[in-house]
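Hi team, as promised in this morning's meeting, here are the two structures we talked about. I've kept the exact order from the run log so nobody has to guess. The first one is mostly here for context; it's the second one we should focus on when we meet again. Sequence first, then the predicted structure tokens.
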Amino acid sequence: MRMSPEDRLRAALRAQVDEVEVTPDALPRIRGRIQERRRGGGWAVIAAGAAVAAVIALAVVVFVPDRVPPHGVTDRPPVTSVTQEPVEPSAPATTAGPVVPGSP
């Protein structure tokens, strides 16, 4: 009878497992190594989070346009005078009624 690929794999794995000898302190040693990794990994996570926050802050500063113009800069053009002479105010109106165009 011919063996299926699954049966051959099962036989190969069983042959390897049968050769393994487990020491009585294997499980506590495994747990100890896991604890050592967990203790040292906390700082790495904090450092990685701080680095990501710094990159985001830098990206915002660099890529987001300013909403407020710098001091002294406006969107309106400066007001310039056509004449070089100062303009004097006109005399106050002497009529009490409304001004009608075409009337003297």
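And here is the second protein, the one for discussion:
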Amino acid sequence: MGLTLPFPFYGFADYCNELKALGIDPGYVMYTDRHANNGQPTARLVPAEHLPAARAYIEAPSDAAFVDLVQAGVLVDTEWERHTTGWLVVSFTGWEVLHKAFSRLNAKLDHAVLDMAG
């Protein structure tokens, strides 16, 4: 079994800077909130060198652009993936901001439940 380092939820920007210092570019994520297979959110990692291809596919989906992303290992060669729409590109380093927003939302939920419970 290989060693898997824990994924940090705090200090994520520092984590990304450490990756870059090691020559690892965390890249981007293609995200959609409704995959054609099951209607659930899904995300695909996009290396920085494939970002233009990912953006081109999102702006004007085509078979050729889909095949390019499959060959790059970004998308999976299935009919479900081919028919998934609503993709967005998120910078990997932006995840810390998203995590903070979800943490605040979760805190509001906790307070609301406590208020309802009395």
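Starting points for discussion:
Strands lie at 28-32, 42-46, 88-91.
The chain has a mean pLDDT of 83.
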